[in-house]
Amino acid sequence: MDDRELSIHVVGVAYPNTDGSNRLFAVRTCRPGDPIELRPEPKHPLDAHAIAVVNRRGEQMGYVPADRAPWIGAKMRAGPVTAIFQAETRGGAAIRVRIGEGAPTLPPVREREIDRDDWDAVDPEGPAWGA
User: Membrane-spanning residues where (predicted)?
Assistant: First the structure.
């Protein structure tokens, strides 16, 4: 059995759901670690491998990318695959997927180092801690 974790970007967040609900709103109701459901859509009109990404409230947030969906779908048919919300991203969302037994874990958050030049670009008055 394959046993690994990976982060996957959710695609299609900018599009409305067929019921008119807002996918971006569905993303913004999630917190890191919230359970995510992966729902295969074999009758999807554009892609028989499509896998919808659904939050804990049952709202669709988007899809697993088309280049990953056939592989993830095969893993889902072979054994347990679980997912959690990882983070909202500039283009939508990231989820953490666990293939195999156990629950997915969030990767450590990397703090972005901010140097003086970054602050000058954000605040022309300079950093709050003085020059």
Answer: none
Residue 116 lies in a domain: no
- The DSSP element (H or E) to which 23 belongs, if any, is helix 23-28
pTM over 0.85: no
The answer to the question of residue 87 being in a domain is: yes
Q: For residue 109, what are the CA distances in angstroms to 32, 59, 73, 106, 116? A: 11, 26, 28, 8, 22
Cα–Cα dist 107/128, whole Å? 31
- Residues 23-36: pLDDT tens digits? 999 999 999 999 99
The one-letter amino acid code at 48 reads A
- Decide: 95 and 55 in contact? Cβ < 8 Å: no
* Residue 117 lies inside a defined structural domain of this protein: no
What is the extent of the structural domain holding 45?
4-106
- For 65, the 3-state DSSP assignment is coil
Rounded Cα distance between 97 and 3, Å, is 11
- How many structural domains does the chain have? 1
Q: Output the domain CATH number for residue 49.
A: 3.30.70.2330
Average pLDDT over residues 15-20: 90
